[in-house]
Amino acid sequence: MTTKESVRPAASDIDPAELENVVGALLDPGCAPTGTVRLGGWTLEYVAPRAFAYTLRLLFGSRIYDVAPLSAPARVIDGGGWLGLSVLRFRQLFPDAHITVFEPDPEIFRLMCRNIERNGLRDVETVQAALSHEDGQQTFTATGSDSGSLVANARGSAVTVPARRLSPYVDEPVSLLKLNVEGAEADVIAELGDRLASVDQVLIEYHGFAELPQSLHTILARLHEAGHTYIVSHFDETNRSCVPPLRVTEDYRYFLLIYSRRLAPRSR
Question: How far is CA 210 from the centre of its chain?
């Protein structure tokens, strides 16, 4: 079996007690709707404190975005950066990786950039755009939280944002592609086409929403065709729709995490 040159994760843990103290403060009913918190030496600006707290816990407690060593040269594409927590985690794990991050919501984009800049993150390319199946301008529902979307029903304000195809950004090998694009993940993967085979590892937050076509099977099929071996996870026990006893109702709404990797072929 051939072995790829790889970039191994750096030592990068956040103290669990510190993390839970910050999460607890954000979940407190008296928490201000906007502000800053200190965590692991960072200063982090937030909105939507409850969503921010759960994202902190998932990324730095449950480590849902921690992946295998990156293929070299280390290059990460982060679709749906929100307030930059995923960028911070990837920078923690892979200090030398080049990161390209997309975020469509204009106000959230500004906050994300401030979090990246104030914490001294280098070699991060920020793109204020939604990932889509075509370039142009599209209507985006901005919620002020982490649920803004091009396609899913969400309560918020309609704004016009730039939309970009992903394939032009995959003109050379990519170590890791992460997508959290609120229901547009199947369109983005479909547009990528054969270039998906140039991506070594993939993380996709799948949004199973009743108002959207079911597309889990198409995403998994495309990963299989691109030579990826995949795992599907329900995140953790708080994702109640995916934890027994299972139910499917007409207004179903659930989330899954898809992880895949192009493994070297087995020698025979």
Answer: 21
Both tokens of residue 230? 């995949």
Is beta strand 98-102 parallel, antiparallel or unpaired with respect to 75-79?
parallel
> Cα separation of 88 and 119, whole Å?
9
Judge contact between 6 and 71, C-beta under 8 A.
yes
Domains belonging to the chain, first-starting first, are: 68-261 (3.40.50.150)
pLDDT 10s digits, 80-128: 999 999 999 999 999 999 999 999 999 999 999 999 999 999 999 999 9
Look up the pTM and report it: 0.93
CB 4 within 8 A of CB 71: yes
Please give the sequence-ordered ranges of beta strands (E in DSSP) within 152-264, or none if there are none.
Answer: 157-164, 174-179, 199-209, 229-233, 253-261
As beta bridge partners, residue 177 has 77, 202
Residues 6+ apart with CB under 8 A from 174: 75, 76, 77, 198, 199, 200
Distances (CA, A) of 62 to 19, 97, 178, 237: 11, 22, 17, 11
With cut-offs at 50, 70 and 90, classify the pLDDT of residue 266.
Answer: low
Whole-angstrom distance, CA of residue 241 vs CA of residue 253: 7
Tokens of 170: 């995959």
**CA distance readout (Å), 86 to 191, 193, 252:** 23, 25, 27
Contacts of 85 (CB under 8 A, 6+ apart): 44, 52, 55, 56, 59, 115
